Amino acid sequence: MRRAAPLLLLIATASSAPPSPLAYTQLRDAGQEEQARALMATLRCLVCQGQSIADSDADMAGDMRALVRERIARGERPAAIRHWLIARYGDYVTYDPPLSAATWPLWAAPLVLLAIGGFVARSSFRRRQR
Predict the structure, then answer these.
(1) Please, is 85 exposed, middle or buried when counting C-beta atoms within 10 Å of its C-beta (0-12, 13-18, 19+)?
(2) pLDDT category, 111, cuts 50, 70, 90?
(3) pTM
(4) What pLDDT sits at residue 103?
């Protein structure tokens, strides 16, 4: 049993890799860092689900921040990085999902609810006038 404790400690420490240097470090070029921050604010943390990767402390968000910064430092455009992340993680990774067969109900729901609200309001006003 005594031999298992060091083995468990070794496994626990080996499984948590250190964060990428760019997860918490800004790019040297202020323009590139501004592009990276703007893109990170539009991407959802897949662990937290309620925060952007810019605001999240999750390890996965740190990895995604590092990935965004690395790609922007290499000269990739933010739109290309965004498309790559959507292709890899799905539409859920972005706060502004593209219009597609799977997301059209999300886009149509506000219009349908607005029409229903208008109909209810109109009916209510007509009853009061009588």
Answers:
(1) buried
(2) very high
(3) 0.65
(4) 76
How far is Cα 23 from Cα 32, in angstroms, rounded to an integer?
A: 15
Could you give the count of Cα atoms lying within 13 Å of 15 in the half-sphere of its Cβ?
6
Q: Would you call 81 exposed, middle or buried from its count of C-beta atoms within 10 A (0-12, 13-18, 19+)?
A: buried
Distance CA 95, CA 86 (A): 11
Measure the CA–CA gap between 90 and 35, rounded to whole angstroms: 22
Cα distance from N-terminal residue to C-terminal residue, the chain:
85
Buried b (16+ CB within 10 A) or exposed e, 36-72: bbebbeebbbbeeeeebbbebeeeebbbbbbbbbbbb
- Digit-coded pLDDT (tens) for 52-69: 999 888 898 999 999 999
